[in-house]
Amino acid sequence: MKYFEHKQGINDMEKQQAVENLVDICHHVQEKGLVSGTGGNISIKTGNVIYITPTSVALGKITDKLLSVVSIETGKPLNDITPSKEIMMHLLSYRANENIHAIIHVHSVYAAAIASMPDFIHDKTIPAYTPGYGLRVGCLPVIPYEVPGSMELAQSVATVLKERNSVLLANHGSVVAAKNLEKALDLIEEIEENAKLFFITNGKANPLSREQIQTLHEYYK
Ligand SMILES: [Zn+2]
Q: Which residues keep their CB under 5 angstroms from ion ligand 1?
């Protein structure tokens, strides 16, 4: 296959496994209801290229042959599949933080809802209600609305992902970054569950304090 030709540090078999894993995670994300229609996009970095889901295809219908391959350095596609329109969000984030090897962006309902609440946009962060969320996500910021696919959105997201692993996009959804897809999936699911907790408790649940979250980090380090 064309996109297994880019040798950069890992061999073809590892690359093929990484691509198969990406396809499995795309299907899982749609089955879990974290996206609908053709929303959401997922990518992985191998060497100096990324494999990213294409534009206008539901994540549940992704196959290895439908993935777009893009140079991180030039931003140019290396095969004939058009990448997600949010390609710049992925590219700028990989360039901003070399520890990122996987990115998931979804429009999951509860996270998008909480990201659209005026109280949380600009300054405040989403509280942590559970230990798993407190450990992996912490206090999640919301960045102001920008047009999906725009350079402004890409730059805002990359600025946050340079420093932390997740961000909510006002009136849009969430983006997470991790060293592998499994960890990214954990993050995206934790965020959606935490956002759901916010709504089913009418925002009255007691969040973990900064000190409690700090204790968790010390306990599990
Ligand atoms: Zn989006």
A: 148
pLDDT on residue 221: 84
Q: Which residues are the active-site residues?
A: 86
Calculate how far, in angstroms, residue 104's C-alpha sits from the geometric centre of ligand 1: 10
Whether residue 214 is predicted with pLDDT greater than 80 in this model: the reply is: yes
**Helix spans in 131-209 (H):** 131-136, 151-161, 181-200
The enclosing H or E element of 44 equals strand 41-46
Domain residue limits at 139: 2-220
Total domain count, the chain? 1
Q: What sign for the dihedral angle of Cα 36, 129, 181, 85?
A: positive
CA of 35 to the centre of ligand 1 (A): 10
Q: What is the pLDDT, as a whole number, of residue 190? A: 95
| CATH number of the domain encompassing residue 29 | 3.40.225.10
How remote is the CA of residue 194 from the centroid of ligand 1, in Å? 20
Kindly report, residue by residue over 35-64, the tens digit of the pLDDT: 989 999 999 999 999 999 999 999 999 999
> In 3-state terms, what secondary structure has residue 48?
coil
Which of 128, 131, 136 minimizes the C-alpha distance to 207? Answer: 128
Whole-number Å distance, alpha carbon 83 to ligand 1 midpoint, is 13
61 by Cβ neighbours in 10 Å (0-12 / 13-18 / 19+) ranks as: exposed
